[in-house]
């Protein structure tokens, strides 16, 4: 009985090690993807400054922030996820409001998110 229990614990430890190794690879891929995400957000930040493209830029920023928020919890990035969620929620409120849009706070939130993303890339 004791030998069986020890063997089960060993199997659990092996499964945990495999799981952790898999999660580490996912985190690495996520960090590697941040450079492309940063570049995309920077392009959208430029479009945000043009009144003709600001609304479509907001919608795209929201979509990308939503995706980012979704994955951040799984890869151990709660601060980045919270910033992405805040950005997403603010854009929802902004787009439901009056025109012309005041995108100043979107700009501020996106820059805070970009700073967080860049810190993760630099720290990798």
TrEMBL record:
| Family annotation (InterPro entries) | HPT_dom_sf (IPR036641), Sig_transdc_His_kin_Hpt_dom (IPR008207)
Q: Known Gene3D superfamilies for this protein?
A: HPT domain
| Keywords annotated in UniProt | Phosphoprotein, Two-component regulatory system
Q: Name one GO molecular function term.
A: protein kinase activity
All copies of domain HPt, residue ranges:
19-124
The keyword Plastid is assigned to this record:
no
Cited SUPFAM superfamilies: Histidine-containing phosphotransfer domain, HPT domain
Q: Does the keyword Phosphoprotein apply?
A: yes
Biological process terms in GO annotation: phosphorelay signal transduction system
User: Under which name does UniProt file this protein?
Assistant: Hpt domain-containing protein
Q: Which organism is it from?
A: Cognatishimia maritima
**Residues modified to Phosphohistidine:** 66
């Amino acid at each position: 009985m004791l030998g069986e229990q020890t063997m089960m614990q060993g199997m659990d430890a092996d499964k945990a090690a495999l799981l952790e190794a898999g999660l580490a690879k996912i985190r690495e891929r996520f960090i590697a993807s941040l450079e492309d995400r940063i570049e995309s957000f920077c392009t959208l930040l430029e479009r945000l400054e043009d009144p003709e493209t600001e609304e479509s830029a907001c919608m795209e920023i929201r979509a990308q922030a939503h995706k980012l928020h979704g994955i951040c919890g799984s890869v151990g990035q709660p601060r980045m996820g919270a910033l992405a969620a805040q950005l997403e929620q603010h854009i929802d409120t902004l787009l439901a409001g009056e025109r012309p849009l005041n995108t100043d706070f979107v700009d501020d939130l996106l820059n805070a998110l970009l700073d967080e993303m860049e810190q993760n890339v630099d720290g990798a």
